Structure prediction request, 218 residues.
Amino acid sequence: MIHAIYGLKGKMISKEQLYKDAIHIEQNMIKENVGSQDQVATAVGGLNVIRFAGDKIDVSPVFLPYKIKEEFQSKCMLFFTGFTRYANGIEGDKLKLMEKKKTDYSNLKELAEEGINALLDEDFGSIGELLYEGWKIKKSLSKKVTNDTINEIYKKAMNAGADGGKLIGAGGGGFMLLFVNNPWLQDAVRKALEGLVEVPFKFENEGSKIIYYNGDVL
Prediction:
């Protein structure tokens, strides 16, 4: 929306300005309890390592050969859990406990670094395990991250052959990303999660962009 408004005003802005504006609006103007990674990922696009140090944000693209990227994507499955949630309440609860959970957040950062290295090394067998370990940590950050229904979905997927997975975003509902390294087990996972909507998706490289501009400005 921000990108479109700039376009209507005849202004072409950088991806950095776009995500900084999005972060400012959500966190400072609307006063939402949200992180900053989603805004950066959406604006920039592609696979990236995003590092935060105070107000500084460093975005380092992860360049993968097409074949590896396609194989990685083929092992990912995305399902809608069947219900939505408000991220603001969940993230607010996490913020209250953040000081006590410093070690957990540090461990999540280390898992992310390990995941990038595993991907670059084509070590797909480790990616599912890292997602599983990350999910266990994420559940400990707030009681609102998961519930009995989500836990049952996760359990069914793992028993059917998934190597790991996590809820996308704050948690509490929404979409669950699963990593199934063995392609022969993907149908078993689908059957185990019968009734949930599987969402097809593809990785993209461009992020937010203006796709049509007729020269008229406000």
Notes: The mean pLDDT is 87.
